[in-house]
Amino acid sequence: MKRLNSQNLLIASLLGLSTLFAGSYPSVKAQSEPKLGCQATVNKVLQEIRSKGVRRTWFKLYEERANENNTGNPTNRTDELHIILSAWDFTKKPTVDSRSQSIIDNIMGSKSLLKSWADRIVVNCSNTAIVGFGNDQSDWGEDYYIQSDGTTKLNKCVKPENAPSPLPWGVSVCL
Hints:
This protein is α/β, with parallel strands linked by helices. The protein has helices at residues 6-21, 38-51, 98-109, 111-124; strands at residues 56-62, 70-71, 79-86, 88-89, 95-96, 128-135, 141-146, 152-154, 156-158, 167-168, 171-173.
């Protein structure tokens, strides 16, 4: 057996200490994206819509309206938030920007994109129960209702003559 000199003793001590403490330091976790507030989330969604080429977009908040026409809301949330997408150009005389309208048609037709935005909004807006997306100056709208698991689901449309009264949660009268 080799005798330990001071250098070997120091190395052995350091190796021993590093082995001893290897499991005692907390692991460093990657920072997750900080949770945005409600207004910041809505602003980010509006910015994403504009970045796709939609001429104008804005939102309207209807407080304490979510339970007026429906029964069975699985949460205690009461607000509706509607996002309006517009192709109208008011710089000269009111006209529709056809390129912007085509983009709006594609966005409104993408249920997965609308759902992802609705889900982000309900995660960060603690009193929002319904997130609606509408094409300005038309009756085309898509409403997403919060579910008990905190995600949203696209509304089910029924014709006025087939509408139960009161309407169950997630059901809308559509023309």
